Amino acid sequence: MGKLDGKVAVVTGGTTGLALASAKLFVEEGAYVFITGRREDVLDEAVALIGRNVTGVRGDAANLADLDRLFETVKREKGSIDVLFASAGTGEAAKLGEITEDHFDKIFGLNARGTLFAVQKALPLFNDGGSIFMTGSIASVKGWPDWSVYSASKAVQHAFARVWLAELKDRHIRVNVLSPGQVATPIQERLFDAETKAQFESLIPRGKIGRPEEIAAAALFLASDDSSYVNGMELAVDGGTSAI
Fold it and tell me: Across residues 192-198, what is the average pLDDT?
C-alpha cells in the first residue's frame, strides 16, 4: 500500500524541480495528482515524466482566473481534494535602494497573493482531514543581502499557516510550511553562478547541496498521515543550514 492511496493532490508549479519530484512521488505512493505550469511544453514534459495518474493544467498561479480553471478541472475530474501543495513561486535579487514596484509586485503577487488564493479557492473542494502545505524558504530566517522582498514573501506563509489552522481546526485540515534550503533545481541554475553555488554549499554542514528527491520525501511526510500530529509548523529541509 502507498501512503497516499486513493488521495487526490494538487501541486501548483509542479512542472520542475522539487515540486515535480514531489508530484511524481505522490503518484508512486498512490495519489492522483493535478499539476500546474505556465508553459505548455514544460507542462507536457512533466506529465510524460510522471507517466500516469496525472493531469496537467496550464496556468499562472498568480492569475485568479487560471486558479479558477484549475479547480474547476479538479472538480470535474475528481470532485474533491485531499492534499494541496502550493509550491508555485519565484525569486529575484534586489538590493534595498534599488527595489522597484514591478519587482515587489512580481514576487509578492505569486509567492504571497498567489499562495493565498490557491488555498482559498481549493477549500470548497477540500475533504475534512486533508493537508495543505506551502513552499517557504530558509531565506525568510537567514537575512541574506539582496533578498529582502523574496524573504518577506516567504515569511508570510508561516503567518498564513498559523491563522489558517485555527480557522480550519473544526475540519481537521492541517496547514504547514515546507522550507527548503539550497536545492539543485532549474531555477537555481538560472539565478546563481558557480561561485555563488559554491558559497551556498559551504554553508551546508554536509558540504553538499540538496536534491529535489530529498525535498519530495519531506513533502510526502506532510501530505500523508505520517504527519497527522504536525500542524502550523515550518519544516526546514536544508541540511542544517538554518540551524547554525
Answer: 74
Is 32 assigned a catalytic role?
no
Mean pLDDT for 120-148 is 95
**CA-based nearest residue to 135, from 109, 161, 117:** 161
Number of CB atoms found within 10 A of residue 208's CB: 11
pLDDT attached to residue 197? 73
For the stretch 46-99, pLDDT in tens is 999 999 999 999 999 999 999 999 999 999 999 999 999 999 999 999 999 999
Beta bridge pairs of residue 84: 10, 132
Q: State phi, psi for 193 to the nearest 5 degrees.
A: -85, 175
Determine the 3-state secondary structure of 65 from DSSP.
helix
User: And the C-alpha cell for 200?
Assistant: 551556498
Buried b (16+ CB within 10 A) or exposed e, 74-85: beeebeebbbbb
Distance separating the N- and C-terminal Cα atoms of the chain: 38
Of these residues, 150, 160, 164, 221, which one is catalytic? Answer: 150
